[in-house]
Input
Amino acid sequence: MPYMTQSMSSGTLPVIMYYRKQSKPHVSHSESGQFTTDAIAAYATANNIATTDVVTGTYRSGQGVPRSPSAEEI
Output
């Protein structure tokens, strides 16, 4: 099964690419929305910042596992 991916940043802090295995080939809006919400929360927690300070990158579905050293599965 493919993965959903999305990068998160916050100005001067490092970018982290989050990914999660999709439950089916075409994810629902609720599943993709929950993934984005969880990625924002994970980035904010990891960097001790408010969730409102997190800048979301482009969401993608149907991806392979990211090869970036900063990628984290959530």
About this structure: The chain has a mean pLDDT of 95.
